[in-house]
Amino acid sequence: MRQPWIDFTDWTLEKLMSVIGKWYNMDIRFSDEEFSQIEITGSFNRYETLTPTIESLSVITGLTITAEGNTIIVAP
After folding, report:
1. Of 6, 41, 57, 75, whose CB has the highest number of CB atoms within 10 Å?
2. Sign of the CA dihedral 56, 17, 19, 22?
3. Alpha-carbon distance 37 to 51, whole Å?
4. Residue 67's closest CA among 53, 76, 59?
């Protein structure tokens, strides 16, 4: 049985967004590649909807993370 939670320690935002993109079948676009190298630690419920997941990431990183169509955009 698959675990509903993913725990991560010192992952780059790029790696985490890649996983989230696969979960929700979304492309990821960083407005600045510098943002992709931010390190982050935490956990997310794999079965949560996309909106609370990206809202949480926005709060944690201080970045604007939005979904437009099939793309998640990470911007300042």
Report:
1. 57
2. positive
3. 22
4. 53
Q: First CA to last CA across the chain, in angstroms? A: 38
Q: What is the DSSP letter of 4?
A: S
Q: Is the pTM of this model over 0.90?
A: no
| Residues 22-51 pLDDT 10s | 999 999 999 999 999 999 999 988 888 999
* Residues β-bridged to residue 39: 12
CB 6 within 8 A of CB 43: yes
What DSSP designation does 46 have?
A: T
Residue 45: beta bridge partners? 5
